[in-house]
Amino acid sequence: MINVTDTIEEAYSKSTTQYDKIVLNNEEYVINNVELDDDCYEEGNVFGTAIAKALNFEIDNSIDLEKKEFEYLTGIKTSAGIEWISLGTFITQDLEPNDTNKINTVNALDYMLKTNIEYKSELNYSSKTVTLLHVAQEACTKAGITLATIDFPNKNFIVDSNQFEQGTLIRQVIQAIAQISGTVAKIRSDNKLYFITPKTTGTVKKVFNLSDYSEAEIKRATHPINSVTLGMSDIEGENISLKDEESIEENGENSLVINDNPFAYTQEKRQQLITAIFNAVRGFEYKAYTMKIQGLPYLETLDNIQLKDFDGNTYNSFLFRYYNKSPNGLETEISAPSIINATVKYQNIPSALEIAKKTELRVDKQEQTITGIIVNQSQYEEKLTQVEQDIDSITQTVENKVDFMRKSEGVTQIHITEAQQSDLLKLEIKGNKTYDNYLYPNEDLYPSDEIYPNMEVM
Questions:
Q1: Where in the chain is the domain with CATH 2.30.300.10?
Q2: What is the mean pLDDT of the chain?
Q3: Rounded Cα distance, 287 and 285, in Å
Q4: Domain 1-217+286-336 coded CATH 2.30.300.10
Q5: pTM assigned to the model
Q6: SS (H, E, C) 283-297
Q7: Residue 313 pLDDT > 60, yes or no?
Q8: φ and ψ at 373, to 5 degrees?
């Protein structure tokens, strides 16, 4: 919610007429037939979205707004005169001239438009000190915007490689960060980027009494999120999940599923990331609704609101969609669509034994290499097969390694059993300080007829 005076809030409760203007190069210009569309709901969810506010209006065609940045302000008449609210800086994306009436229709977006450029990282990922926060800060710096939120879930997660392929937009990087932190990325009226976690327990910015509105509908209550899954959509058995058993027993399972996030490309990383996401979104619920109201431009998407029905019952919800028309503010629409529940088969957190057996594809998009790794570790041995393929060739480098581990104490003889029938490339024996006195070459240790492969004599 934008901070405004009490007189502004009081005026919006009585008047339906707004005034609109832009400021370009320190000059003010009146604009008409304004439409402001602010949304954070996409593809059935709000988490992980990064949607720009869209502004459309008409202005005299003598004003050059082609590819220009300008500030948009809306105002209302109060006892002190017209008081103005700044809704931020916008950038012209498209301009439609009308030679007949000499009026241009301008389509503009907020500073999220600046993120529609390629992400070219200069971070030293190999240092193993780059965090998710560092990636967010670099992305914003390269886009020319300020990062307002420096404390968000998983901010200290170490990012050890650049998983964004050539041509990836900064906006896509921001979306990936929002997704893996259980937040929504938004440009606020101060033109800064925020990572926002919608909380049902947040401060209520506005109470809407349905008896005051002719077009209002309270819909079903969404069920609280009680299960979070991180996985890979094209690889079976790679999902990691956390769930609230008590909530599931009471409300059924309601999942937030995050697939193919570039920061969570291995089982180990998904295990590191999932707890913070689960803690951020656990219990998230709200009452779905749609309303047509007097425009209240000081409200912002993701604000906590309450709905009061005709019987006096109060429900918690959010402002997820805001479509404001001016100067006739009575055509403004607000809503919170129902979250679409993505149902997946629950998978328990792997046991220690399951963790020891894993199959991974490690993709370094910056270096353009793919490495396939299969590891099986038991109490006595570790088997590893690694396949690496360079994008410039079909040649594959294959490394196979088997480590046999045995612990022997107080013995002078070592027998290797269960060895595979293959050439012995390396034999390493570790013992106390004096063991090397008895290793070949030494007069006490030497090849003899008594050392031979353990097989039947033909």
A1: 1-217+286-336
A2: 80
A3: 7
A4: yes
A5: 0.74
A6: CCCCEEEEEEECCCC
A7: yes
A8: -130, 130
